[in-house]
Amino acid sequence: MTVLPYSEYVPHDDALIVRTPARPRLRPRVAVRDDPVWVRYTVIALAVAFLGLFVVVPLINVFAQAFAKGIDIYLAALTDAEALAAIRLTLITAAASILVNGFFGLVAAWAIAKFEFRGKNVLITLIDLPFSVSPVIAGLVFVLLFGLQGLLGPWLAAHDIKIIFAIPGILLATIFVTFPFIVRELIPLMQEQGTEEEEAALSLGASGLWTFIRVTLPNVKWALLYGVLLCNARAMGEYGAVSVVSGHIRGETNTMPLHIETLYEGYQAAPAFAVASLLALLALVTLLAKAVLEKRSAKE
Amino acid sequence: MRISILDVTKRFGDFTALDQVRLDVRSGELIALLGPSGSGKTTLLRIVAGFEWPDVGEVQFDGEDALSHSVGERNVGFVFQHYALFRHMTVFENIAFGLRARPRRYRHSDQEIRKRVDRLLDLVQIGWLRDRYPRQLSGGQRQRVALARALAIEPRVLLLDEPFGALDAKVRKELRRWLRNLHNEIHVTSIFVTHDQEEALEVADRIVVMDKGAIQQAGTPQQVYDHPQTAAVHEFIGESIVVPVTVEAGDVSFDGTSLGLDPQGVASGAALLFARPHDLTIVPTTGEHRLKGVVRRIHGIGPARRVEVVLGGETLIEVGALRAQQLRVGQLVGLRPDQYRLFPAAS
Fold this sequence. Notes:
The structure holds 2 protein chains of 2 kinds. Chain A is mostly helical. Chain A is built from 12 helices and no strands. Chain A is globular, with a radius of gyration of 25 Å. The termini of chain A are far apart. The relative contact order of chain A is 0.13. Chain B is built from 9 helices and 20 strands. In chain B, the strands form 4 sheets. A 6-stranded mixed sheet of chain B has the order 6-7-8-3-9-10, sandwiched between helices. In chain B, strands 13-12-11-14-20 form a 5-stranded antiparallel sheet. In chain B, strands 15-19-16-17-18 form a 5-stranded antiparallel sheet, with no helix packed on it. In chain B, strand 7 (157-161), helix 6 and strand 8 (189-194) form a beta-alpha-beta unit. The longest helix of chain B has 18 residues, at 169-186. At the A-B interface, helix 8 and helix 9 of A face helix 2, strand 6 and helix 5 of B.
């Protein structure tokens, strides 16, 4: 094996390092930005080409396909009753996810960051569960729990409560899948901030609610907004879990991703891409909002 | 306002943080809780504030039970070691917080709040920082804001938890002198926690020395320094020289040699002799009743010198000596304790 003066080079896998005694460098190391022009441009070109091929071209394609049959078809696809129902359901689902996960995210992050209790590590692991479980399985779990043949199915049927193949199931599945986003943003920040500011507020005579609104919430507002943004993006785009519990009833239990799929499977490419372009637009807006948020929170 | 702490005990799991602590703080007094970390001083302060509750015991404000009231109801001003300023509020908003948090019917008008905050800003001499955010302030400035914020609610008692602990030496000295002057002006009953004996001696009317969850001694700085009641207090306040001795038949001996000292009521057996470095005089070895030792090192500049002496082959002590005194390393010297305290070795 050729021995190279790589003494500062530390790869991730320690077992693979062949440590060589540091020896004096004969030549001062060349800074990366002093690399030859052709290297620089090759690297930049590679990065740009990759991004273009895998991100920009498909994105443009979505819009191109959407408008392929003219703007009339595009608008018709978006104002179609089933499309409008899908958009409405998606918005409701996203709003519900944000509200529920925002509330429980704050509560869970507060509990984990500010108190010591038994089973805390188990709780932290559980919070990450939706990240590690495939969304399809998450959907199946709800079917097994609430479906007709499920654990609570007969009871629910007897009381005429529909969860699976209905909106409640879609909400449950989406909330489950998007749960970690907000908590994950809040926990490290709250842990770092500790409880002294809250104690100070209480000692100054503030009530618990006032302390929460005036001290705790403003201190985590950027992280909370960031989490809400991620949660929203994922909630609107969720396919797997929702697909299992929805039943694909057009105009009723179809969210936007499901609606797109239904259209596409039915050989209606242009309308499918028209609705897809809306979702893509949402992604772009999310990116923009994320950039703005990061800039503002960095300023504070 | 008078604060009475009556037989307060507090445990965290197996650890006893406070063990039957009794203390009276007189109205208008500035008192220092002094002790090493883990001595229970911060726990005691947090119990008085209402952040913690004791397992057993009572806390009374002017004879009234305080434990049945929450921290907000007790009307205490609390100053944290790391300031705990509200990071997203300006200095002005920080100080106004307590006034704005009041229930509507007790709240002052906006104009009145502004007037009060401005007065406090003047009091802590930081009026020009009014619109800054905490992150734009130095440590000393932050602590002044924290103090003004605590004073804004016109607290009945001011509690300070290591208020100067996070500051550098120069600012610390300046701020504690300023705190002393401020206290002379406003006379609010104050308790501050510190592990810095110099700080306690300089600022406090009275010092409460704590160790292992118990009060060792309470008294004026002079009393505590001159008449320490336990070995722990002697060790903790000021510099101490400790010599292991034996008390037998009304006499004190070291290494088999009688020292001709009064045992100060300590029972026969192993004991510890405590003295301040300046209370041990180096004398010739001739003459009786002398601690004897060998000079190991001489150092120091200026008029006074520090001399390290090894007693009985193993106990190393450091005493002061005048430059005029002729000493050399390896020399056998005698030591005479002019002032000393004896404590049983077990304590």
